[in-house]
Amino acid sequence: MTIPVLLAGHGALPSGAADAAEFVVGPQSRLLVCELGPAESPDTYGERLADLVGDAPEVLVLADLPGGTPANAAKLFAARRTGVRIVTGLNLPMLLEVLVRDGDVDELAAIAQAAGKGGVLTEPVLSR
């Protein structure tokens, strides 16, 4: 079973992450995007998030900021449903690794967390 991956974040960040990921690995039918608009209430955002997920038995939510409205809405949603896991700190290495791997939602959450941390590096400057 392919587990949906919901990108939750402020503004266009989720769409940008989805576009970048699909640029690298091709179209991904499992990606769901939920952008928080500037004037949107947390309740309205949470309702849209729930509508996007629908009745999927499992979903991995990759949210931009811990403690932000998108992550908090996902936490409220997860409190009402089993099979929802949330990883914050959305970045492209995290997303790409999740999209090319298989596993249950717990395995994918662990993969996302490790890849997200591992993808943050200070690159050496090349000298001429």
UniProtKB/TrEMBL annotation:
One of its GO terms (biological process) is phosphoenolpyruvate-dependent sugar phosphotransferase system. It is found in: Cytoplasm. Keywords: Cytoplasm, Kinase, Phosphotransferase system, Sugar transport, Transferase, Transport. Transmembrane segments: none annotated. One of its GO terms (molecular function) is kinase activity. One of its GO terms (cellular component) is cytoplasm. Coiled coil: none annotated. It holds the Pfam family EIIA-man. Residues 2-120 form the PTS EIIA type-4 domain. Its main location: cytoplasm. It comes from the Bacteria. This is PTS system, mannose-specific IIB component. It comes from Lentzea albida.
